[in-house]
Amino acid sequence: MTDTDTANGHPPRLTRLAFHGPLSETRANNLVQRLTRTNPTTVLDIGCGWGELMLRVLAEAPDATGVGIDVKAEDLARGRRNAEARGLAQRVEFIEESAIGTARGPADLVLCVGASQALSTARTPDHTTEALLELRRLVTDGGRVLLGEGFWQRTPTSAELSGMWPEAAVTDHYDLATLLDLVVAAGFRPEWTETANLDEWEEFESAYQADKETWLAQNPGHPLAAETREDLDRHRAQWMSYRGVLGLAYLTLVPAV
Ligand SMILES: C[S@@+](CC[C@H](N)C(=O)[O-])C[C@H]1O[C@@H](n2cnc3c(N)ncnc32)[C@H](O)[C@@H]1O
Question: How far is the CA of 12 from the centre of ligand 1 (A)?
Fold first, then answer.
């Protein structure tokens, strides 16, 4: 879906989200403060989407330049527009390419939030380790990584798993303790460990659907209405299956040397 599609009467997409994940303004502000303590001059955002957190880091670190990579042109275009509007366009590039095996970096600060799938196509158990080793390769010694990664808050039941994403399996994620052990084994120490709370998840999931819900209410007879209602119902059922079970950890990582 592009801006042109929206102008042509398609439902809008993700305009109610500041970040493409469960992240409050308070947590984002704290992250930006923490991640700029080491005065990064280069920032690499893996699976950046529209790169909101990277733009906020660059605003706080005036000597830094940033590169965001993602495969979704529409989100990259939103990032470029936001950079332009905030006077950051000279210091940031939004590049359309896959991050698998990327030749970008190393950078002083590497962001990978909700996007470890951009670093490894393996399924667990190899996926997380492969992504962590890539992050270690991409960060400079003395730099920082922010990894936003899913984990199980408790073991999901079979009924919950069958309601989540297609082919969801208990092996798709680890618990937080195991995730942190893998982080350490891959050559990092955790400077800060925090997890999205239920308010952040509810804000994210509601904002994720709100555009389409309001569009549907206003366009019940539109040729795309039935398909849109089906998408919304499917996603809501998935969210009700992983609500309170799937967590998102924000791990500020120091590379061990
Ligand atoms: C949940 S979004 C997170 C976006 C952003 N990091 C944020 O927190 O707002 C995951 C992003 O990963 C991107 N992605 C998935 N596979 C990728 C790949 N192979 N290379 C680069 N980006 C990828 C998707 O297009 C999507 O924008």
Answer: 19
Q: What is the pLDDT of residue 138?
A: 98
Rounded to the nearest angstrom, the distance between the alpha carbon of 222 and the centre of ligand 1 is 30
Q: Looking at per-residue confidence, does 126 or 31 come out higher?
A: 31
CATH 3.40.50.150 given to domain 3-255: yes
Average pLDDT for residues 103-115, to the nearest whole number? 97
Q: Which distant-in-sequence residues (6+ apart) come within 8 Å of 178 by Cβ?
A: none
- Binding-site residues, ligand 1, Cβ < 6 A: 19-21, 47-49, 52, 69-72, 75, 98-100, 113-115, 117-118
Structural domain boundaries in the chain: 3-255
